[in-house]
Automatic annotation (TrEMBL):
<dbReference type="Pfam" id="PF00583">
    <property type="entry name" value="Acetyltransf_1"/>
</dbReference>
<dbReference type="GO" id="GO:0005737">
    <property type="term" value="C:cytoplasm"/>
</dbReference>
<keyword id="KW-0934">Plastid</keyword>
<keyword id="KW-0012">Acyltransferase</keyword>
<dbReference type="InterPro" id="IPR045039">
    <property type="entry name" value="NSI-like"/>
</dbReference>
<dbReference type="InterPro" id="IPR000182">
    <property type="entry name" value="GNAT_dom"/>
</dbReference>
<feature type="domain" description="N-acetyltransferase">
    <location>
        <begin position="43"/>
        <end position="178"/>
    </location>
</feature>
<protein>
    <recommendedName>
        <fullName>N-acetyltransferase domain-containing protein</fullName>
    </recommendedName>
</protein>
<dbReference type="GO" id="GO:0008080">
    <property type="term" value="F:N-acetyltransferase activity"/>
</dbReference>
<dbReference type="InterPro" id="IPR016181">
    <property type="entry name" value="Acyl_CoA_acyltransferase"/>
</dbReference>
<keyword id="KW-0808">Transferase</keyword>
Amino acid sequence: MTFWKTFFKDTKLKKLYSNKTSSRIQEKILIKNLDNEGQDINIYFSTNNDIDLYELEQLCDSVGWVRRPLKKVKIALDNSFMIAYIFYHENNKKKVIGFARATSDNAFNATIWDVVIHPNFQKKGLGKALMNQIVYNLRSYDISTITLFADPQVVKFYRNLGFITDPDGVKGMFWYPM
């Protein structure tokens, strides 16, 4: 390992190749004073890896996603390049209302997965704000190709954010166990 460290004397390179969460952990206000049933709340964005699995499961349940084993969800989160979520504070506790994650080769490509916004907070610009932050963060790692999979009913949403169908006409290929 000492041999490889000689290549990373430049602090910019050291930051780029260091542990992905060390220098880019963030938690910030995303939207101030969002109306939530007559009450103004601040919406926060975080890339900290401290999301509660049970709260994430409840969020996914709220949109009707099929339940996944929590043990596998934890493995998926642990192996993600980035975890991002949005929340507000209620009684000094975080209430997660949006989530997404990305996997990456750490150099050129990233794929965004599991984008979800709680139904009570949809149509308020939070999905757009969450996606813009994820793309911004991925671009800060100099990742140039960002992909995602979209169900037909949300393709228009992603197109409005600048995503396009593959310009080379390449079709995705999938393998599923029988």
